[in-house]
Design brief:
Shape: elongated
CATH architecture: 2-Layer Sandwich
Distance between the termini: 21 Å
Structural class: alpha+beta
Strand order of the largest sheet: 1-3-2
Helix content: 10-25%
């Protein structure tokens, strides 16, 4: 997870902002903080039905819908534990 790398590089007490579209983060990030001793300062759903810009080189399947991809945007603030 990219959060592991970012937390390792952060200074003690530093707050990291995470923006995510994966609904599993509503479970995973609080568990990450609880397990490793970091503080989940804030968690919120920022927006729903956000249109995502997809990379034109992304692999698609013929049956894929041509409708824009939409997702919910989640925001977290995680404070790295003190050393």
């Amino acid at each position: 997870m990219m959060l592991h790398r970012t937390i390792r590089q952060a200074n003690s007490g530093e707050v990291i902002e995470i923006l995510a579209t994966d609904p599993a983060t509503t479970r995973d990030i609080p568990n990450f903080c609880r397990h490793l001793g970091h503080e989940l300062v804030h968690q919120e759903t920022v927006a729903e039905q956000v249109v995502l810009a997809l990379d034109p080189d992304e692999i698609t399947i013929d049956s894929d819908s041509t409708e824009p991809t939409r997702a919910t945007l989640y925001r977290y603030l995680v404070k790295k534990k003190s050393a």
